[in-house]
Specification:
Layout: E1 3-7, H1 12-23, E2 27-32, E3 52-55, H2 61-68, E4 73-76, H3 87-107, E5 114-120, E6 128-131, E7 135-137, H4 144-148, E8 163-166, H5 178-197, E9 201-206, E10 208-210, H6 223-232, E11 238-239, E12 246-251, H7 252-264, E13 271-275, E14 280-282, H8 283-294, E15 301-302, E16 305-307, E17 313-314, H9 319-322, H10 332-344, H11 353-362, E18 366-368
Parallel strand pairs: 1-2, 1-4, 2-3, 4-5, 5-9, 9-13, 10-12, 11-15, 12-17
Antiparallel strand pairs: 6-7, 6-8, 12-14, 16-18
Helix pairs in contact: 1-7, 2-3, 3-5, 6-8, 6-10, 8-10
């Protein structure tokens, strides 16, 4: 395999994967829609000149046909992510595009040997917990009424008792958001169509990916973007709920290494892998790490708000991918420091938090808990 396609290749995961592919001698073609909210200035300067570039939409058959011409491997990393209730867009961009990819490969008898796809930790929903009475459980999303009372912890679905969170393994999925459902649908399409037509697929369930090139123009860029921008404008990071939710964060370079590894290793074929970080970190602790990275002595703010649909504790185990020789190498303080340095070097370091927060409040995604 020599020539590969990377969809979403102008994005921070896609472009970092491109860098690793070029370093290993691949010829790389990129297709990206250059969505304005992510790439308001068009093709980013960090994309290497030797990369072939196509502006196209993964929902469009003609764009796929141009992009797939002559390639032997595909990294389908283009995705739609947001907190807004754009339910049909999640399905069209993430799932329908995958069906279209396989439809074209099969219809045109293309010589694609393998497909690596961007899935998400979101396929697990609230994740995996242990109840002292009922053992391991996979709870549904927390009810709106519970969140409105500022009762944050997940309860046992059987006895309503307290739960202890467990590292999430790949064996059970339970998506409860349109985004998570779209990603699991993507997996079902890739594995079942891939097996039927002899096209190996690997689905990568990314934890929260962080690092340079993570656009700070769109609301979904996440905690690193929001906290860093506020701190660099001398404003406190805003923690939702009580700031004690646990997450794992993984460096974009580690993710890119994982993407290339599974493309090259046949042991990964027709499997889904968690691509997780080194350890669980609370939102409050993340805020303090970000403050140190930005050189600010600013404590986080607890706003009393919560994002409707958020999970409480979501921490993935990366042991399955570790069996192929991968591990997360970059610790969170270094990840945040690199991102802060990258943001400082950008020409337009606006504070986008207030605008995106107002949009989420208007859509009732961001809500205020009771006293």
């Amino acid at each position: 395999m020599n020539r590969v396609l990377v969809t979403g290749g102008a994005g921070f995961i896609g472009s970092t994967t491109v860098d690793h592919l070029l370093a290993r001698g691949y010829q790389v073609r990129v297709m990206d829609s250059l969505q304005e909210r992510v790439h308001p200035r068009g093709w980013p300067a960090y994309l290497p000149k030797e990369v072939e570039r196509l502006q196209g939409d993964v929902r469009n058959r003609a764009d796929w046909e141009r992009a797939l011409d002559g390639v032997e491997g595909v990294f389908h990393l283009a995705a739609y992510q947001d907190y807004m209730p754009d339910f049909s867009t999640f399905i069209h961009v993430n799932a329908v595009s995958t069906a279209l990819l396989y439809e074209i490969i099969v219809d045109r008898k293309l010589p694609v040997q393998k497909v690596v796809l961007a899935s998400s930790q979101a396929v697990y929903g609230e994740g995996k917990y242990r109840c002292a009475r009922d053992g391991v459980v996979y709870p549904s999303s927390r009810p709106a009424e519970q969140l409105a009372r500022a009762e944050w912890e997940v309860r046992c679905p059987t006895c309503q008792g307290p739960l202890a969170h467990l590292p999430i393994t790949e064996d059970q999925v339970n998506p409860h958001t349109a985004y998570g459902i779209s990603k699991y649908t993507l997996e079902l399409l890739a594995f079942n169509l891939g097996r039927k037509y002899g096209i190996p697929a690997v689905c990568m369930r990314y934890s929260i990916v962080q690092g340079p090139r993570n656009s700070f123009f769109n609301a979904y860029s996440g905690i690193c973007r929001i906290f860093t921008l506020r701190l660099l404008h001398d404003q406190p990071p805003v923690c939702y709920e009580d700031g004690l939710s646990l997450r794992d964060y993984v460096y974009v370079g580690d993710v890119a290494r994982a993407n290339v590894l599974v493309m090259e290793d046949s042991r990964a074929d027709f499997r889904a892998f968690n691509v997780g970080g080194q350890c669980a970190t609370s939102v409050r602790e993340y805020a303090r790490i970000a403050a140190r990275a930005c050189g600010k002595d600013i404590e986080p703010e607890l706003s009393g708000e919560y994002r409707f649909g958020d999970t409480r504790h979501t921490v993935s185990s990366w042991e399955a991918l570790g069996s192929l020789g991968w591990r997360p190498e970059v610790p969170l303080p270094q990840i945040v420091a690199e991102y802060a340095a990258w943001v400082r070097a950008q020409p337009d370091m606006g504070d986008f938090y207030a605008r995106s927060a107002a949009q989420m409040r208007a859509a009732q995604v961001l809500r205020q808990a009771g006293p």
